[in-house]
């Protein structure tokens, strides 16, 4: 299997009797279970493990109680002095495309998304395939799409999540979604006794442009880890973290 092959290669590089790298894929929803409920056994048996590096990427914004989930993750999994890699939806960036997208989804699936953009139910697999096909057609200016619809559909096609069924559900039809400003994230991190050490971007080009904007905004710290200053950068360029 791939897992056994990977373990064999690891032991070739680390010939000691015991491998020096331990990793675990877990479910943050289990860590933040409601009081009085028990996590699934596979999660529970690993809760004694704590790590130097914890990655929570594309997850926290889909938890019903994100602050509680973050606290549980830090207290249950992160070693003192460890590093948490965190990636969430940016509220400022989401507002550049989501309102128009939800109006469009309401017109395409009115019994799935209401006029205010609220999710009424999950689309079936057939409905999901159908709406993705319509959005593809609109984005290419085909069919009955008006210019505004074509623009909204085109924005959705920028997201790699759109191109698989599971990712598209997360992007457009997730029952729990909370986007954050950097000031809100700063306060959440402080409540979890975490100190920002830097930010990261989805591409080298975005990284280059954003860091130049940070310096232009007066940022002088080498780590470029001042979330309040990054917030000001994002207010000027709303897709900085999009």
Provide an overview of this structure.
The protein is mainly alpha-helical and 242 residues long. It has 3 domains: 2-90 and 179-195, no CATH class; 93-172, no CATH class; 204-242, no CATH class. 47% of the residues lie in helices and 7% in strands. It contains 12 helices and 2 strands. It has helices at 2-13, 28-31, 41-44, 66-77, 91-94, 98-108, 125-139, 147-156, 165-172, 182-191, 204-216, 227-236; strands spanning 51-57, 78-87. A two-stranded parallel sheet has the order 1-2. β1 (51-57), α4 (66-77) and β2 (78-87) form a beta-alpha-beta unit. α7 crosses α8 (147-156) and α10 (182-191) packs antiparallel against α12. The longest helix has 15 residues, at 125-139. It is globular, with a radius of gyration of 21 Å. It starts with a helix and ends in a 6-residue tail after the last helix. Mean pLDDT is 85; it is low at 35-45.
Task: Please name the defining characteristics of this protein.
two-stranded parallel sheet, globular, single chain, mainly alpha, 242 residues, SAM-dependent_MTases_sf, Methyltransferase domain-containing protein
């Amino acid at each position: 299997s791939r897992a056994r092959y990977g373990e064999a290669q690891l032991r070739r590089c680390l010939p000691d009797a015991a491998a020096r790298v331990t990793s675990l894929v877990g479910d943050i929803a289990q860590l933040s279970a409601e009081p009085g409920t028990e996590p699934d056994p596979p999660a529970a048996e690993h809760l004694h493990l704590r790590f130097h590096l914890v990655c929570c990427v594309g997850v926290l914004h889909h938890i019903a109680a994100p602050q509680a989930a973050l606290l549980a993750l830090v207290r249950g999994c992160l070693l003192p002095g460890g590093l948490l890699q965190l990636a969430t939806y940016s509220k400022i960036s989401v507002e550049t495309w989501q309102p128009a997208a939800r109006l469009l989804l309401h017109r395409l699936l009115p019994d799935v998304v209401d006029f205010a953009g609220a999710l009424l139910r999950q689309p079936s697999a057939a409905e999901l395939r159908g709406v993705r096909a319509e959005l593809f057609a609109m984005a290419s200016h085909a069919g009955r799409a008006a210019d505004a619809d074509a623009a909204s559909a085109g924005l959705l096609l920028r997201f790699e999540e759109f191109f698989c069924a599971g990712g598209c559900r997360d992007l457009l039809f997730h029952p729990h979604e909370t986007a954050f400003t950097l000031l809100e994230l700063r306060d959440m991190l402080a409540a979890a006794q975490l100190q920002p050490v830097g930010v990261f971007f989805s591409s080298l080009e975005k990284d280059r442009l954003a860091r130049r904007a940070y310096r232009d905004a007066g940022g002088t710290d080498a780590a470029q880890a001042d979330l309040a200053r990054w917030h000001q950068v994002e207010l000027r360029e709303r897709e900085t973290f999009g």
